[in-house]
Amino acid sequence: MFKNEKPFELIVLGPPVSGKGTQTELVAKTFSIPHISTGVILHAIKSDTSHPMSAEVRDYMDNGKLVPTELVNKLVAERIKGEDCKFGYAMDGFPRTLEQAQFLDSAADIDYVFLIKVTDEIIIERMSGRRVCKNGHTWHLKYSPPKNPTICDTCGEPLFQRDDDKPETVQSRLDIYHRETDSIVEYYRSKGMLKEIDGEQHIEEVYYQIVRQMVDDLRSKVGWK
Ligand code: AMP
User: Fold this and answer.
1) Per the residue annotation, which of 46, 96, 126, 131 is the catalytic one?
2) Which atom of ligand 1 is nearest to the CA of 96?
3) 77-97 pLDDT, tens per residue?
4) Count of Cβ atoms closer than 10 Å to residue 65 Cβ
5) Is residue 128 part of a domain?
């Protein structure tokens, strides 16, 4: 019988703008579990100037650097203890380093690890066209263009390029991604946990493949082959 009381502890790995945030959100909605994103948590701290860590977090993020692991581990450990995480959660942006992956092993019992694969060339093209407004609505000048390239269609606020999407930080973010995250991809691959998904397909197809794998796994766990 099915004994896992927290069956939906999943993480989604992938380079910046691989679509991992979108996919994690869709999977979270599908299984009625919270979507946890360390990028969103850290953006909130950065924007809250009354927060004691705001200036320090801003400095790391605006320079395309990783925020110190000790702080991020603490934030994640607190978040996954939340009552809304009792059946699990879908998390992206964490772990980003081997140290964070090892920490997560001690704090959680991860059921699924998805890797969304996108080549560096596509990443650079996707990042350079991304525009956001202060309310977090996201557009792309080529793939999902707003009517006016400087105004958000949803709320009418001005659109801007995130500091960490600017050309000078894009390459640095990719370098950091490969330097830090390639090792955790190997870590999960060697444990036989990694499920690789082609992230250059349509959003719907990427979503379908993730959910399909989860449903197949759940069916086999309850004995419905
Ligand atoms: P994201 O929205 O996931 O691309 O994250 C934006 C920025 O937040 C990153 O460039 C880092 O500066 C910081 N960040 C997010 N997640 C982590 C993490 N797990 N460890 C360290 N820094 C992080």
Assistant:
1) 96
2) 19
3) 999 999 999 999 999 999 999
4) 14
5) no
